């Protein structure tokens, strides 16, 4: 054997050793990718019931929101009716009631003033006050 053939044989051996050393991580990487593929398939299979349940839940929530919209519309109508009733009451009875209250207050004050004019002022005792 010539020195060139020995060098070629050593280079071939080093190349085989390099291929073996690189094959081990590639095999492990292949196994990891296989496990990741299996995990993705399982997640996909398990996500269908989850999405179905979420869709059902969203449908129920939408139904409840429609009901709440109806309730708020009714509440808005009731507050409008109460406001109209209040303004009607104020317009029809508020003015006369204020006038009647003012009249009764004035009459009462006049009667007290008339009764008080004929009597002498009384002195009040201040018990407990200093």
Automatic annotation (TrEMBL):
InterPro entries: UPF0478 (IPR009293)
Pfam families according to UniProt: DUF948 (PF06103)
Entry keyword set: Membrane, Transmembrane, Transmembrane helix
Membrane-crossing segments per the record: 6-27
Protein name: Secreted protein
Organism lineage: Bacteria, Bacillati, Actinomycetota, Actinomycetes, Pseudonocardiales
């Amino acid at each position: 054997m010539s020195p060139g053939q020995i060098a070629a044989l050593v280079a071939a051996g080093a190349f085989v050793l390099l291929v073996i050393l690189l094959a081990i991580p590639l095999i492990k990487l292949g196994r990891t990718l296989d496990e990741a593929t299996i995990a993705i398939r399982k997640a996909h299979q398990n996500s269908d019931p989850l999405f179905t349940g979420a869709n059902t839940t969203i449908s129920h929530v939408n139904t409840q929101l429609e009901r709440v919209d109806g309730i708020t519309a009714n509440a808005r109508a009731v507050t409008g009716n109460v406001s109209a009733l209040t303004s009607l009451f104020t317009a029809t009875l508020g003015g006369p009631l204020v006038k009647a209250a003012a009249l009764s207050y004035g009459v009462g004050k006049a009667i007290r003033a008339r009764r008080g004019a004929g009597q002498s002022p009384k002195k009040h005792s201040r018990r407990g006050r200093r």
